[in-house]
Write a structure and sequence with these properties.
The protein has 177 residues and is α+β, with helices and mostly antiparallel strands. The protein has one domain: 3-Layer(aba) Sandwich (Aminopeptidase), CATH 3.40.630. It has five helices and seven strands. Strands 1-2-3-4-5-7-6 form a seven-stranded mixed β-sheet, with helices on both faces. Helix 4 links the parallel strand 4 and strand 5. Helix 1 packs across helix 3. The protein is globular.
């Protein structure tokens, strides 16, 4: 099986250009049909440049996990420390900031393998709880997160370019439980 050759590893500095290109491509493919092109471009330019990814990889408060298939990215996730919304039960929770799987890998178990690695990385940092924001219109992602133990606990505003959008806040308590 091809997925047997997938390797989950931490990103290193030289991964920044590939991670930038991957993030731009997958984010665009996922959200371009429902968003203003100017807002999408503004977001991508603020989040997915090689310099931004280089800074994220170097930041000790961010864990960047790559799912690699022979040097080609299939998925990535970023977990970070930072402020926790009041609706999340554990103020020491870590945020699952980004979680993106190449569309070619949807439905093949890749996302589940990456989520297991995310849980392990968060536990290694001492976290018992993960939280995330997911666009209220991204029903596929919401279903995936529910399947993996997350529950909706609130909402917040996510700014895509100049467009304020509503994200559901979900949390998962008891990592590894």
């Amino acid at each position: 099986m091809l997925t047997d050759h997938l390797v989950i590893r931490r990103a290193i500095a030289t991964d920044a250009p590939a991670l930038s290109a991957f993030g731009r491509r997958v984010f665009s493919a996922t959200f371009e049909a429902e968003n203003n092109p100017a807002d999408l471009a503004a977001y991508l330019d603020g989040a997915y440049t090689a310099a931004h990814q280089q800074a994220d990889i170097a930041d000790p408060s961010i864990d960047t996990l790559l799912l690699d298939l022979g040097g080609s990215l299939a998925a990535f996730a970023q977990i970070r420390e930072g402020p926790v919304p009041e609706c999340v039960d554990d103020m020491a929770a870590r945020e699952l900031w980004r979680f993106y799987v190449d569309h070619a890998w949807h439905g093949q178990g890749v996302a589940a393998r990456l989520m297991t690695a995310v849980d392990e990385a968060a536990r290694a940092r001492g976290a018992n709880t993960l939280w995330l924001g997911v666009w209220e219109r991204n029903l596929r992602a919401q279903a995936f997160y529910l399947k993996h133990g997350f529950a909706v606990v609130g909402s917040h505003t996510f700014l895509l370019g100049s467009d304020p959008q509503r994200d559901l806040i979900m949390q998962k308590v008891g990592l590894g439980a």
